[in-house]
Write a structure and sequence with these properties.
Number of helices: 3
Bound molecules: zinc ion
Distance between the termini: 43 Å
Strand content: 15-25%
Number of domains: 1
Radius of gyration: 13 Å
Number of strands: 3
Structural class: alpha+beta
Largest sheet: 3 strands, antiparallel
């Protein structure tokens, strides 16, 4: 498996998208009930950047309402960061 470092580090773009989708409700703010990390099978679509996750680590994240979302490692990190930021800022 060959991944460059830039693929793993959160990009500003991922943070922007994650923040936008948290605000619009496309991404949940509640903590997941289950989180599994593994190698993608090439069919998952990232919930943050909408790109297919091919040949990379994928986070499969399940929620109380039955939703399961998939994330690139960097997009998952961006979601966590923005979720925390928005929770701290909220009431
Ligand atoms: Zn992504």
């Amino acid at each position: 498996m060959t991944t460059s470092q830039s693929d793993e580090a959160p990009r500003p773009n991922s943070r922007d998208r994650a923040r936008e989708r948290l605000r619009s409700g496309q991404l949940p703010r509640e903590p997941p009930i289950r989180r599994l990390a593994g190698l993608s099978d090439g069919t998952e679509q990232c919930a943050v950047c909408d790109e297919r996750i091919v040949n990379l680590l994928v986070y499969r994240v399940s929620f109380d309402d039955g939703r399961t979302l998939h994330f690139h490692a960097r997009c998952h990190e961006a979601w966590l960061i923005e979720r925390r930021a928005s929770t701290d800022a909220g009431p």
